[in-house]
Design goal:
Blueprint lengths: L7 E2 L2 E10 L2 E8 L4 E7 L8 H15 L9 E7 L2 E7 L3 E3 H5 L6 H20 L12 E4 L4 E3 L20 E6 L2 E6 L5 H4 L6 H17 L9 H10 L9
Antiparallel strand pairs: 1-2, 2-3, 3-4, 4-6, 5-6, 7-8, 8-9, 10-11
Helix pairs in contact: 3-5
């Protein structure tokens, strides 16, 4: 249920909505303890009904908060509101990489800069055993001063998104003998498509698809249906880029 301005989540007062997607609703809020604006992501209530999943969520949130890396969004707090868990993070000003890509491919120098910063953020997380599992332009934020911030580390393995996918990206829940593997079609690694466990290499594959899209303005695997995209992911290479 959307939160109205003025709603209090502990010391945080909701000011305005910032957006909504499959991973939950995001709000600008005021932290009255420290006198600063923060972003609050309220996750689907289904997560609260999974006690083990909720414990994993809180543990991973604390691990991410401890990273303190300039290319990973800072996590300040975790909490629970009327049965729905939420994350409190730094409030960013700027736009997502997806929004920037709507204007077309990026200049080579800028794409390389973004790619290097994404790689630095991933490396810092991987060094601590934290895997993103759903890296894509929607989860990469570009601040007003041009710095990359990676969003939503670890959230993909905990919840199945509710509601419509963002910007045509299809989030798949794939049943396997080991459970359910989640990812966004077009950015999943081959092992994720096969229903195998994701690891650091899965994030590196996703980074490759993001780099391809930044340089070409097109997704690396383009087909009509999710099934066709996943088949192309397993059996085909993306079209070669002609950079000038």
């Amino acid at each position: 249920m959307p939160l109205d301005p003025g709603t209090n989540l502990g010391p945080y007062e909701i000011k305005s909505p910032l957006g909504a997607g499959g991973m939950g609703e995001v709000y600008r809020a005021r932290d009255h303890r420290l006198g600063r604006d923060v972003a609050i992501k309220v996750l689907p209530e289904a997560l609260a009904r999974d006690a083990a999943g909720l414990r994993r969520f809180e543990a991973e949130a604390r691990a991410i908060a401890a990273l303190n890396h300039p290319n990973i969004v800072s996590i300040h707090d975790v909490g629970n509101h009327d049965g729905a868990p939420f994350l409190v993070s730094e409030c960013l000003e700027g736009q997502s990489l997806r929004q920037e890509l709507r204007a077309g491919p990026l200049p080579l120098r800028r794409a390389v800069k973004y790619g290097v910063e994404i790689a630095h953020g991933l490396a810092a997380a991987h060094d601590k055993g934290i895997i993103h599992r759903d890296l894509k332009p929607e989860n990469i934020f570009i601040t007003r001063d041009g710095r990359v911030k990676i969003l939503d580390f670890g959230v993909a393995k905990l919840i199945r998104p509710e509601g419509p996918p963002e910007d045509g990206a299809t989030f798949e829940a794939i049943p396997t003998s080991a459970g359910v593997v989640l990812g966004t079609v077009g950015y999943m690694s081959p092992e994720q498509v096969r229903g195998e466990a994701a690891d650091a290499r899965s994030d590196i594959f996703a980074l490759g698809t993001v780099l391809y899209e930044m340089l070409s303005g097109q997704r690396a695997f383009r087909r009509e249906t999710s099934a066709e995209i996943m088949t192309a992911n397993l059996k085909e290479d993306p079209p070669e880029l002609a950079l000038t």
